[in-house]
Amino acid sequence: MGPPRPSRNVWPPRCWTASPMLAHLNVAQKRAVIRALAAEDYMLVQGFPGTGKSTTLATMVRVLLQLGRSILITAYTNTALDSLLLKLHKLGIDFMRVGRSDRVHPDLAGHTDQARTCQVSTVEELTELYASQRVVAATCLGLNHSIFSRRTFDVCIVDEAAQVLQVTALGPLFMCSTFVLVGDDKQLPPVVRSESAVLHGMTETLFERLCRPEVTITLTEQYRMNGPIMALANLLTYNNQLTCGTPQLEKATLDLPHYQRLVEKGAVAPWLQRVVAPTLEEAVVLVDTAGAGGEARVGGSSLVNHWEARLVIVVVRTLLKAGLSGSDMGIITPYRGQVKLVRKLLAKELKEEDVGKRVEVNTVDQYQGRDKMAIICSFVRCGKSNDKPAGILTDRRRLNVALTRAKRKLILIGDQVTLTRYTSFSCLMKVLAPHQVYCLTPGTDGFQWEEEEEEECQDTEATELEK
């Protein structure tokens, strides 16, 4: 595909009526919207983590509607699609969401095609209804609906386009005159399970193929991470392109209203004080478990590390006591077995506080496009688990996603010796300052595995192995 053809009249007179809608955007976000209006065929928006991509797209939709354009919005996953649609819903923008009702966010139930067509009794009414929808949304694989055989659109917006295979992305593009691809090729790639297909280049997306400076607006001003977390992302991935949206954000810390009182009462062990401290200097901390005596084992088709899972529970409980809401923290781990184990322990250990369900535990893939005030990452693998392939840990883009979900506090738990065998983690260890790494050792700073805890670890690991 050749370079795009920009409109000769980049900002036609009728666009001035929409200019007040851009007032809340930063310079790059405004440029993205204007470029989309001016494009004759296509343009790209590269949105780095926390740079307000959804806000930009919601404004883009508002302006396009103001100018009388019809819009098709699509993404590969229901989660990514609904994330953008929730923004439109809050802005009062009308749209039709095509897809199975059980896979649509509950707040969007009134926008589904089932809800819109329940009162329709004739083919003529149905045809008129479909033709009148100026904004229609569906996943890339949900375009077999009859509405798409009856009409085309002026503009197609493909969100999270860096996750969509080329063959999948082409479907919606045939239904429009102009398309906008939005994504970040430094985050999660498409899932291709065939090694042969990977070798033959199937993982290359249309976004990567078309991403060139002359066709792309890059959003670099972020509003999510404080300075230390952003610095980590810059050093590992973004070559210092990311900047903080405000000076206040750069210095923002985790709000733990009860932390100091707990410390003064001696209710928090010295090692835990360092790990959960709500200071800017400790906004990023690695808990190195290499000397803690833990062990990872194969549980079913995945890896589990009960020792790390127990550490996660201890950290979560301490953050809760210090005043952080369960809904403000998230736990990320690369292995589904560990996700299952941590969820089980949360439900058991935190039952009385009724927060087990509010603390979200998921894999990296499920956290794309999401964020939390505090993120705890359990990397699972240690020196005794080298018999299991480590493909997940070798993917630098997945590590990037995991690190950039946190707003104020990022706690990494893993075996430093083992993790540094992988290139992406080796780079991570090099950029962490000495004060950001805490080597966990039994008998030091009040850390000690209890005997009953060790027995429970062994019993649970045995149970996992039997599954």
UniProtKB/TrEMBL annotation:
Domain named DNA2/NAM7 helicase helicase: residues: 24-115, 127-195
Enzyme Commission code(s) on record: 3.1.-.-, 3.6.4.12
GO cellular component: chromosome; cytoplasm; nucleus
Any one GO molecular-function label of the UniProt entry: 5'-flap endonuclease activity
One GO-annotated biological process of the protein: DNA repair
UniProt-listed CDD domains: DEXXQc_DNA2 (cd18041), SF1_C_Upf1 (cd18808)
UniProt key word DNA-binding: yes
Pfam family, one: AAA_12
Compartmental location: Nucleus; Chromosome
Chief location of this protein within or outside the cell: nucleus
Residues of the DNA2/NAM7 helicase-like C-terminal domain: 203-416
UniProt entry keywords in alphabetical sequence: 4Fe-4S, ATP-binding, Chromosome, DNA damage, DNA repair, DNA replication, DNA-binding, Helicase, Hydrolase, Iron, Iron-sulfur, Metal-binding, Multifunctional enzyme, Nuclease, Nucleotide-binding, Nucleus
Cofactor: [4Fe-4S] cluster
Catalytic activity from the UniProt record: ATP + H2O = ADP + phosphate + H(+)
UniProt similarity note: Belongs to the DNA2/NAM7 helicase family.
Function: Key enzyme involved in DNA replication and DNA repair. Involved in Okazaki fragments processing by cleaving long flaps that escape FEN1: flaps that are longer than 27 nucleotides are coated by replication protein A complex (RPA), leading to recruit DNA2 which cleaves the flap until it is too short to bind RPA and becomes a substrate for FEN1. Also involved in 5'-end resection of DNA during double-strand break (DSB) repair by mediating the cleavage of 5'-ssDNA.
Name by which UniProt lists this protein: DNA replication ATP-dependent helicase/nuclease
Organism: Scylla paramamosain (Mud crab)
